[in-house]
Amino acid sequence: MSPPVTSARVHHYLGFRKTMSQNKSKTGGEPKARDGFTSSFGVLAATLGSAVGLGNIWKFPYLTGTNGGAGFLVVYVLATLVVGLPVMISEIMLGRKAKRDAVTSLVKLAPAGQPWWLVGAFGVFAAFLIMAFYSEVAAWVFAYIFKAIGGDILSRDPKVTSGAFTALISDPVQSLLWQWLVLALIGGILLLGVSKGIEAVTKKLMPLLFVLLVVIGARSLMLPGAGQGLAFLFAPDFSKISAAVVLTAMGLAFFKLSIGMGTMITYGSYFRDDQNIPLTTFRVMCADLFVSLLAGIAIFPAVFAFGFQPAAGPSLLFITIPAVFASMPLGHFFMVVFFVLTAIAATGAMLSILEVPVSVLSERFGISRVKATVINLLLLALVGSACALSNSLTADFKIFGMTMFDLFDFVTSNVLMPLGGICLCLFTAWVWGYDRFRAALSNEGALDNERVLKPLFFVLRFVSPVLILYVMLKGLKVI
Ligand code: PHE
To answer: Which UniProt keywords apply (predicted)?
Structure first.
């Protein structure tokens, strides 16, 4: 047990956080005793665990499939480089500097009286909306592991696999129960804390994910006719690129890198002080892109080899893919592997989404981590049910012609996260300023990286915010 914190100085430091810090403190309550990632590999695993998720294995393939393939991929990679990377670096930097949850970090860093903390508050809101639909897709994935083992989705006929999928998503009881199961699993890991929960779990799961993905990718590439799938993924045709497609690609970049909604501020606050932020972020971005490409390589050659359509949309993963596996030798085994790896990816990402509201509740409001987790889970079971039931009981409840599932997905990636991204660019480049930016990202001068920081700051100041705003307004047909 840690000793109780009594000194007035420490109370002064910790302010409203004293409950949590008393629990966590090993040294008598100095702020540095706050829970965080303990090793460099742990930082990488957790951050990559947040980035890699259903975005790579569910969203990226189906969006690439419906938006024409390689042309979309090129726009997405550009958005990741010009917008995603700079925003991600600045978010992690702000988090590490303030070492607090997403709301408190911005309260602490902003000049007195300026409401930048609202960006964190909107982040909490976005986290809820994302988690609401994300946990439902994850619910299907977890259910599919068992369906895959049992063999009932092992059919070459897309009509059969589509029937199985429809039966699952239109059953309100199954949809809700699987979602609650997923929420309970994520909540359970978060209860273990940042280093013993998030870091420990992602350190084990991420390497496994890579191995499984390489196995599946290799299997797919060995199929006769794989070349057509590769051409689809890598030979660009720009005729399909419209303003809406560019916005979709940029939204995917935000979603993929978990930026613009507080996750990276929160994870940044757990970063070690000696961590090289620009380098770590660059590595995470590359690895994340690599996973998306591997997922594409695992999926598209197989889709083409067996004569399926790449443009199946969100159900690609659940209808087309099982039929594809059923068509290949050893397909039963590989299908189970595939859904296990997808579940692993989704788990790391959900930990980081839910950590945003959990850390805000526990740090900002001084509630214990256990209570904060339980409160968020209960709220999510409520908000999430709007998505879980959007293929059954609430299917006719639509806003802007979208079910809650589609609406939450659309609004977060195409509006809330880009807006959050713009604000964070503006805050970093126009309020925080270059001197502090350089000091924070060079680890107070320990790293010699000014050559990188100068252009990066320029992009954050003049390029990213303008570009995000333009793409957003154009894609939403405001201009
Ligand atoms: N990056 C995750 C994925 O691709 C999703 C995510 C979004 C995670 C926002 C955290 C925050 O699946």
So the answer is: Membrane, Symport, Transmembrane, Transmembrane helix, Transport
